[in-house]
Amino acid sequence: MIKNYLELNKFEVEKIIQFINRNKINKLSFEDIDKEIKSEEFDFGRGVILKIKGQDIIGMASIILKECDKKGIAYIIKLDINESIEDKRTVLCEIIEESKKIAKKYGAREVFLGTKDDTIIRNLNTLNIKKQYSAIRMTLDNITVKYSPLSLVKLSEENKKEYLMIYNDAFKEVPNAATLTESDIDEYIKKADENNCYIAIVNNEMIGFLQFNIKEGVGEFDLGLIKSARGKGYGKLLLETAISFLNSKKVKEIGLIVITKNTLAYDMYKKRGFKESELVSDWFKLD
């Protein structure tokens, strides 16, 4: 049987806490789990499904539904099947089929599944579902800045509409990119110390954005250019601006996550000297 998270009874809620925490050293509380599952990207819990056998939860998946009506795409993430289950392929197929049904109801024309679980990947391959692209983490050894950085203006209440427009225009055609909402922007502003966001300026024109996350001496960033600013060499200037900013924060490591299908960004990072350091996930298109 497959149930939606919002349909679980009290006993099953206890079981999902056990399931999610079964291999974790730092256990998550129900409040943490519930908050994540009921986020907007999963339509407040409607996009999270559980495979139940007897009295046990043996599998689950979270479906990002936020992009269905905007881009016609749904993303299945956090697909997890209990390692003690013998017939994982059958469980996988059931979860995939139910996920596709939900995605279709929300208007998705395409459904992608992301995972780095070797067992799940092997089973996907037996179903003739092949990898389309990967999300990888890259790090930079040579952090010497090569070009003068661009001017930056920090995200604020006054410019949040401009930031929203720039971000969504920059990522409109980028694989796996989320569409930003006003509530997302408000959350960014609240957490300014954890997630620093800036608008890049050239000749008094807003041409792109930078977003930084610094934790325990490791600095990661994301960047994007509006469509009208592309092909003018601003991409490499924006990249150097990001490196310069993180240098000023004296981080011990500079990194980023890139989708290999986004070949323009991927090639730019490789050319600058970024090297692949970790597989985040492989992505499979489901028919």
From TrEMBL:
It holds the Pfam family Acetyltransf_1. Keywords: Transferase. The keyword Transferase applies. Residues 150-287 form the N-acetyltransferase domain. One of its GO terms (molecular function) is acyltransferase activity, transferring groups other than amino-acyl groups. This is Acetyltransferase. SUPFAM superfamilies: Acyl-CoA N-acyltransferases (Nat). InterPro entries: Acyl_CoA_acyltransferase (IPR016181), GNAT_dom (IPR000182). It comes from the Bacteria.
